[in-house]
Design goal:
It is a single chain. The chain is mainly β and 124 residues long. The protein is built from no helices and eleven strands. Strand 7 and strand 8 form a beta hairpin.
């Protein structure tokens, strides 16, 4: 499975961005996908996750109500709509995929495939 993330950029505080992650290759093996981010000097953390079949989602507390992940199975694409962004959201955002059919991938260790990352910069 190959993952191609896009949609990052520079936005002012309070603004919005939508990230996309297109999967190719053996997409039938995908059980779920996740969004992670890594801010300068910090560890990579999970932001959101989605089950590929059920559409069940998970969000880390700091983004609840502002970020929404969704999927388009026909396009093998997952999205991360980011609203009301703040400078604290500045990070490289990564999409990732795993093969577990049940539940959500909440830890990095379950993810087999990673995209290249896309930079989101939020100015104050």
């Amino acid at each position: 499975v190959q993952l191609q993330a896009s949609g990052g950029g520079l936005v002012q505080a309070g603004g919005s961005l939508r990230l996309s992650c297109a999967a190719s290759g053996h997409t039938f093996s995908i059980g779920g996908m996740g969004w992670f981010r890594q801010a300068p000097g910090k560890d990579r953390e999970i932001v959101a996750a989605i089950n590929w079949s059920s559409g069940t989602t998970y969000y880390t507390d700091s983004v609840k109500g502002r970020l929404t992940t969704s999927k388009d199975n026909a396009k093998n694409t997952v999205y991360l709509q980011m609203n009301d962004l703040s400078p604290e959201d500045t990070a490289v955002y990564f999409c990732a995929a795993h093969g577990r059919r049940l539940g959500l991938g909440l830890v990095q260790a379950v993810y087999n495939y990673w995209g290249q990352g896309t930079l989101v910069t939020v100015s104050s």
